[in-house]
Amino acid sequence: MIISLPQAASLIQNGEVVAVPTDTVYGLAADSSDDIAVAEIFKIKGRPEKNPLVTLLADVEQIYQFVNDIPPHFEELAHTFWPGPLTLVIPIDVETVSTTIRAGLETAGFRVPESTTTRLLIQKCGPLVAPSANLSGQLPATTPEELEDIFGKKFPTLPADVHMSGTPSTILCYHDNHWIITRQGAITSQDINNIIE
Fold first, then answer.
1. pTM for this model (two decimals)
2. Which residues contact 105 (CB under 8 A, 6 or more apart)?
3. Is 94 helix (H, G, I), strand (E, B) or coil?
């Protein structure tokens, strides 16, 4: 069910889950500060709770509410590839990110999506957790029609304002004082090495 931005904001603020466009696939979005809403995402997807969730930000500046120290090259990476399909996993202030989102880890993943609509939603509601819109282990949705097939015609969905490639974001983790690609996706290793080497 296609909904407007104000409708999506109202649902998010009331603890509901909404499908939102990113730039890779649709995501299942909920208020990152609402543990009950976050738990609902795991239930909807059938996702193991040991798998951490990515948090979508409206801009680079929002990262500072979650961290005590910024890793080397983080700002260069963020300003080069955000908005876009790069997820950066970094050490965080564990008091600022629910253990449900980070699966008990002391790190969390963040990215800024290319969708202007979704970034406006984040500006209204705050950072959103938003893993891919699919049942765990299956292909994620890239169109409202695919979302209907998976979750039914009444599932609230923001219309896409970007082309979603279906290629996942590249995941880049800062661990033991260096960056490691843990999932190769839309951003190439060469693109990243041009920044961090």
1. 0.96
2. 52
3. coil
